[in-house]
Structures are given as C-alpha cells and as structure tokens.
Design goal:
six-stranded mixed beta sheet; globular
C-alpha cells in the first residue's frame, strides 16, 4: 500500500470533504492520513494525526512518517500557527522524496504581476500595492476597493468612495453590510493607517459587477488536472449575492445557480460570444500559471461580468472550495472526491517508474 497525506491547519477543517476523499484511497492502494504540519517532530521525523480505516469508515489517531504524496489544504492567515505551518510546508516542498499533487500559488500581488504581462492582461483589473494610507489613488480610482494581499473569501475587503460629504467606507460582514462615512479626512486616514499595520493591502478600481437589481454576482469555475496531465473544466456556477452587497460571498448569504441556467435567463447580450470568451479564459489560464509557477492540480477561477458584458478575472485560487459546484451540480460530487486520489495514483506510478529506470541504469 502507498501512503497519501492530507494537510490542514486543524484536524477539524473540511471534515466532510476530507472524509469523502479518504474513502476512495483504499480502492487505489493508498493508506490515507490527515495531519497538521505543526505536529512534525524533527527528532523522530514523524507527525501525529489520523489514519483512515476503510473497514470502519472512520479515522484513528496515529503517529506516522510523512507520506510521500501530499495534498495541501492549509489556508494560511497571519497568525503564528499559520506561519509555523507554512514554513514547515515550504520545507517539505523542498524534499525530493516528497511530492505534492499541487504546489499552490503565491500571494495576489505576485499573481497579478504575472497575469498582467500575459495574454489575459485585458481581463485583469489594474492593481497597485498600498504602501501607505496617503497613497490611495482617488484621482485615478474613485470608487475603489482595497483587499489583503493574502486574503481569501472576501475577508478584509473594503469599498471606499470619496465625495463632497467625506469618505464612505463599506464592508460585508456575515450577516449584514456595514458602512461608515468619515466626514473628517484625517479620521479616515487614521483608520486606514491602523488597518495597514495589520497586513499589506492591494488597491483596485471598483467594478460594477452586479445585475439589474443590484445583486453582485460572479462565475466560479473549477478546473482540475486529470491523470492524463490535461486540464479539464469540472464545472462552473453563479454566486448571486444579496442586493447592495459588495461581493457575492457564500458566507454572506449568496445563492448558487448552475451556469447554463443563468446564461439562458440573463439579459446580457451576445450570450454565445460571452460563453466562448469565458471558455478561452479557462483554457488559457492554467497553462499561463504553470509557465511561471510550480505544478498545480486544481484552480478555482472567479470571473466577474459588468452589465455591458465586460469580463474581469477577480480571483485565482489553488485551494478552491467545492460548494458552488456540488450545489449547482450534485452529480459531480463523487468525481470531485475521487480526483485527488486518482491524480495521486498517477504521481505514485510515475515515481515508481523513475525508480525502476534508475535501478536499471545502475546495473
């Protein structure tokens, strides 16, 4: 049996998804383990976590050597534990005896710099790093948004608009949208300076990505690399937010629609052209990313559409969630659960062939 490990920052994270993935491990000769990187003991070269027992359909606590094939599902924040785990994972990625099914993407700024120079540059919103509060480019962008360089899920995103009454700041919380008008400019910059002390931010022009009734929406697409090494579009769905929200965040109550259903009922013109354009983006993007970054396994791609039909790539995530796809297309759930195991099996077979070839050469 071969060993396959799933990494996360907590053994309680993504339990349903990880459990479903593990169920298919035994069918492909894998022992499946789940552990937190910070449990690594350099003295024993082992970690403490859980091992999936197929007969029980459950996990048991275990101490084990780090599996040779890993699936990183760690969502790093700015806390000390995240940084510790991130450092350990980076060290593991440098170990020639360990292979990740996907090596992830860098922060949003590094990603922007690559995409802005690519053939998809026309779909990338202009973005700058906000080094200081006074550098907000109201002369070029108004309204604008700021978001953390290392953020995800819309957390820490702010809509900012300057007018004669002051500076309006708006953000989406889980249960409501919160806004504040700074009538005194000095108070606004004092607030922003405090925000920038916590983490680095990016600035982008605000794009009107909502429908005729002011509901923000975007297209979430999931692409995965198949065992054949070819990229495949698994599915795409529409995230439709509540009216007057900034973004269509699922945690803030956004609903989900199958892409094709939405396309049929939308009032956007040139539907066939729009679909073709999106298809081209999804086909090109993984290839472009792997020209500059290490090997990837899966990518979540968020595309926004203005009422005039302009497309914008909003976010690219190498650790995508699956709720949009499994909600819009429940029949794809099993395919999604099997995918990491099937791809890991391909890597394991490739490693075995390389090892056998090396043995033949040595003799």
């Amino acid at each position: 049996m071969r060993n396959f490990g799933i990494l996360s920052l907590s053994l309680d994270h993504e339990n349903n998804y990880i459990n479903e993935v593990a169920k298919y491990g035994h069918q492909h000769q894998f022992n499946v383990f789940h552990f937190v990187p910070s449990s690594y003991n350099p003295l024993t070269n082992k970690v403490i976590g859980k091992k999936f027992v197929p007969n029980l359909h459950d996990w048991v606590e275990a101490e084990f050597s780090i599996p040779s094939i890993l699936y990183d599902r760690c969502f790093y924040q700015d806390d000390a534990h995240s940084k510790q785990c991130s450092n350990i994972v980076q060290w593991l990625k440098g170990n020639k005896n360990i292979h990740f099914i996907g090596y992830g993407l860098p922060d949003k700024w590094k990603l922007y710099q690559v995409l802005r120079k690519s053939k998809l540059s026309a779909y990338i919103p202009e973005t700058i790093v906000l080094h200081a509060a006074e550098e907000l480019p109201f002369n070029q962008m108004n309204p604008l948004i700021i978001k953390p360089i290392n953020g995800s899920g819309g957390n820490g995103l702010y809509f900012i608009k300057k007018d004669k009454n002051g500076i309006l700041v708006k953000t989406d919380k889980k249960d409501k949208s919160v806004e504040h008008l700074f009538s005194e400019t000095a108070n606004f910059y004092r607030w922003l300076k405090q925000l920038l002390k916590k983490k680095p931010y990016l600035v982008q022009e605000y794009l009107p990505l909502y429908n005729q009734v002011k509901q923000p929406f975007d297209i979430r697409s999931l692409v995965q690399k198949q065992p054949s090494q070819k990229w495949e579009l698994v599915g795409r769905g529409i995230r439709l937010g509540e009216p007057d929200r900034i973004i269509s965040n699922l945690s803030a109550g956004a609903s989900i629609l199958p892409f094709d259903d939405w396309l049929q009922q939308t009032n956007i013109k040139w539907k066939n052209f729009l679909k073709t354009e999106i298809d081209e983006i999804l086909a090109m993007l993984p290839v472009i990313l792997e020209e500059d970054f290490p090997t990837l396994f899966e990518i979540g791609i968020d595309i926004g559409i203005t009422q005039s039909g302009s497309l914008w790539i909003l976010d690219v995530n190498s650790k995508p969630g699956r709720k949009v796809i499994t909600t819009a297309y429940p029949e794809l759930s099993e395919k999604l659960y099997k995918a990491p195991i099937l791809y890991a099996a391909t890597l394991a077979d490739e490693k075995r062939r390389i090892h056998e070839d090396a043995k033949d050469i040595s003799y």
